Amino acid sequence: MVKKWFSGFIGLVLLSLVLTACSGGSERSGGESDVEIPEGATEVVMWNLFAGGDAEYMQNIVDAFNESQSEYFVNNIMQENAEYYTKLLTSIGAGKGPDVAIAHTHVLPELVSQGLVQDLDTIGEDVGVKWDEFNQNILDATIYEDKHYAVPMDTHAQIMYINNKLVADADLLNDDGTIKMEKTPEGYVEFYQTLKDILPEDKIPFAFASSGSDPYWTWWTFYSQMGGRGILTEDSLENPKYDLDVDKAIKAASFVNSLYHENEIIPLNISDFYSEFQSENAATMNTGVWATGTWESTEGLEFTPMPIPTIFGENAAWGSSHTFVLPYSQKADEVAQKGAVEFMNFAADHGAMWAEAGHIPAKTTVVESEEYQELPYRSEYAEVANYVNFVDRNIYARGLEEIVVRHLDTIWAGEATPEEAFAAMETEVKDLIGE
User: Fold this and answer.
1) How far apart are CA 180 and CA 72, in angstroms?
2) Disulfide: which of 2, 98, 240, 309 matches 236 by Cβ 3.0-4.6 Å?
């Protein structure tokens, strides 16, 4: 694996000094921390980017690990989400990174390419990580040149949520809880037209955002269902080529756009589509699995989560994955590193605790466990983990996503046709990758 450092990190040393200045007792803490480390235990500093309910569920896993043994103590430190990856990459490069960190799969290529994370094969074997217990589709997104660079915790896919009462009122709910929908583009539109025609005028058939990540995820889902695999070639971490299937991309975007405009199924510019669903004003919505925990704690809300229907041929969905990585350090504390991987393994094995947040555990053995199966709702969409189409695995993934979302937004806003948007996107993407 080529290990190269970003030449753009000119301000590395200056920023590392700032990070040190704002640190607590440990230069690896990256924030104020007054946690007392038990006597005789090795501190394992962990950084995460979680907020809200996710933060609580992760802390529960950390607490369970710390209580399960006395050799290590994981010091779990939440970092500011917006600046997380800038701080993580820079800190590791300055030799002041944590012992273990959370990384999304789409950021992993940058970490691997720059040599900022270690592969886990040797230490994983020592600790007893059982790679064959993971869902292969999720695990594949963490493997580079046949080496494991992360322990995946989950996949969090975009799925569909329905309000049981409103869908039943339109006579579109089967006795087994599934929806009455022909699995074709025409059947999909007909389902929503029926909701629109039958439900009271103050009810929304499909509550959704008009810009940003959410419609991008749905576009990616339908593009993938058509057989589209990515935007750049998948065989190069650092030197990919532009490889968008333009015909499929335009077809998927045109279909999503028709839901806003031609068929007027999704009202434009809803200020808060989550609130519309939570207050029972919307019959359906699409969002990530993380909303499950919110909906089940909402009094009186009767809902069902399910995969976005396969209407274009292939089972596929947008999804990402939270993973644990082992930051590289020339002065690594081998005991702390072993403790870090011990914790990763523990957390993956206790994925049912993390599933309380709505995420699908990365381990097949966890998904099949009685503890997971007893959780309400989660089994309704666990199958999505088998066919999530992860975004392009290369060092441009973050920049690429920003470009794609921005140009898709011009379609939904009526400022450009799909053909115009993808032509402009191609120019900008090729400039990004230097093609």
Assistant:
1) 52
2) 240
pLDDT in tens, 334-343: 999 999 999 9
pLDDT digits (tens, 9 = 90+) for 210-261: 999 999 999 999 999 999 999 999 779 999 999 999 999 999 999 999 999 9
* Least confident stretch, 22-31, 264-273, 412-421: 22-31
**DSSP letters for 285-321:** EEEEGGGHHHHHTSTT--EEEEPPP--SSS--B-EE-
At 27 the pLDDT is 54
DSSP states of 363-414? BHHHHTSHHHHTSTTGGGTGGGGGTB-PPP-STTHHHHHHHHHHHHHHHHTT
The CATH number of the structural domain formed by 12-153+321-349 is 3.40.190.10
Q: CA angle 350-354-358, nearest 5°?
A: 140
| CB contact at 8 A, 116 and 92 | yes
Asked if residues 252 and 219 have their Cβ atoms less than 8 Å apart, the reply is: yes
Residue with tokens 């800038």: 86
- Look up residue 295 and give its two tokens: 């909906």
User: Where are the chain's structural domains?
Assistant: 12-153+321-349, 157-319+395-433
Would the CATH topology of 12-153+321-349 be identical to that of 157-319+395-433? yes
- pTM, rounded to two decimals: 0.92
CATH no. of 157-319+395-433: 3.40.190.10
